[in-house]
Amino acid sequence: MISFEMFLLILGCAIVTWIPRVLPFAFMKKVKLPSVVLRWLAYIPICILSALVISNLFIKRNSYVTLNWPVLVAAIPTLIIAIWTKSLSLTVIVGVAAMAMIQYFFL
Question: Where does the sequence pass through the membrane (predicted)?
């Protein structure tokens, strides 16, 4: 059974995590942003996703860098879906499914 202190700790962590993720949306709901800012903000999800993929695409060994082949193989259908559909959700789903199948069948 969970103690009261542990419950308060979990509740506090949830609130601290929730505040910076939800409050900006509440404040920005009534603000009209310039089109230049909106265009710039549209690139943020793809930049974050690209940074995560690229950082996992290479493996640093002692004195050299090599490709992480399973990630590269999973990135190919993911990139095709991203270009074809331009849907971030579908791209993430295909990427996760491709990596899961590679790990299940080959690793």
Answer: 40-59, 66-84, 90-106
